[in-house]
Specification:
Elements (H helix, E strand, L loop, with lengths): L5 E5 L6 H12 L2 E4 H14 L7 H10 L2 E6 L2 E6 L2 E2 L7 H10 L3 H15 L4 E5 L2 H5 L5 E6 L2 H14 L7 H17 L12 E4 L5 H15 L1
Parallel strand pairs: 1-6, 1-7, 2-6, 7-8
Antiparallel strand pairs: 3-4, 4-5
Helix pairs in contact: 1-9, 2-4, 2-5, 3-5, 4-8, 7-8
Protein name: Cytidylate kinase
Enzyme class: transferase
GO cellular component, one term: cytosol
Length: 224
């Protein structure tokens, strides 16, 4: 890719953001930054340190000394916590809820956004999250907001967890977690989940991942 661009993909949990962003990254040859993985890593550190993921004071102190590094090997993102590769350890249901909780803390978001912006300043990136187009990269050239029904998002997340070997879960529990995260993400005071005024909204409920990814790629290439 000749010119440096930034692509922001926002939306609620289970809307397909990460999977779609990875496909676009591969197709267009640009770096994919999984911002959610960064908050998951903070949650993992808190849980390991026996810090409640809703304890703002303790989290604020912890995040001052946390070292999160994002590395790329053969185009794949790996995330390290204080030198340890934790990429495979941050996708449990417990970490999902913890990530939503820690993301509410302004001190945590400021620390993560600083790192995200540093990466975006150096290379073309595609980021997905809750507030990429509104807060992290407000000047991104391309912004998209993905939605889907709660039922569809819960089913996707449930199937994803089952495929990863998590057996002690139910569809109802996953739906409850999704609804909890929706409320948490949308109601937080600092940089809440919201659609940027200039973002293109796509309802993915009845669309395949491939269809959504291709629609976004076509829009970007048409405007480049």
């Amino acid at each position: 890719m000749q010119k440096k661009i930034s692509i922001a993909i926002d939306g609620p949990a289970g809307a397909g953001k990460s999977t779609i962003a990875k496909m676009i990254s591969k197709e267009m040859g640009i770096v994919y930054l999984d911002t959610g993985a960064m908050y998951r890593t903070v949650a993992l550190k808190a849980i390991r340190d026996q810090i409640n993921t809703t304890d703002r004071d303790s989290l604020s102190k912890m995040v001052d000394s946390i070292d999160i590094a994002v590395n790329y090997i053969d185009g794949e993102q790996f995330i390290c916590l204080n030198g340890e590769d934790v990429t495979s350890k941050i996708r449990t249901p417990e970490i999902s809820i913890g990530a939503s909780n820690v993301a509410v803390v302004p001190e945590v978001r400021i620390k993560m956004v600083e790192l995200q912006r540093q990466i975006a300043s150096k290379t073309s990136v595609i980021m997905d999250g809750r507030d990429i187009g509104t807060y992290v990269l407000p000047d991104a050239q391309y912004k998209f907001f993905l939605t889907a029904s709660v039922e569809e998002r819960a089913l996707r997340r449930y199937n994803e967890q089952i495929a990863k070997g998590y057996k002690d879960i139910s569809l109802d529990n996953v739906k409850n977690d999704i609804e909890y995260r929706d409320k948490n993400d949308s109601s937080r005071e600092f940089a809440p989940l919201s659609k940027a005024a200039d973002a293109i909204e796509i309802d993915t409920t009845s669309l395949s991942i491939d269809e959504v990814a291709q629609r976004i790629i076509n829009i970007i290439r048409k405007e480049m």
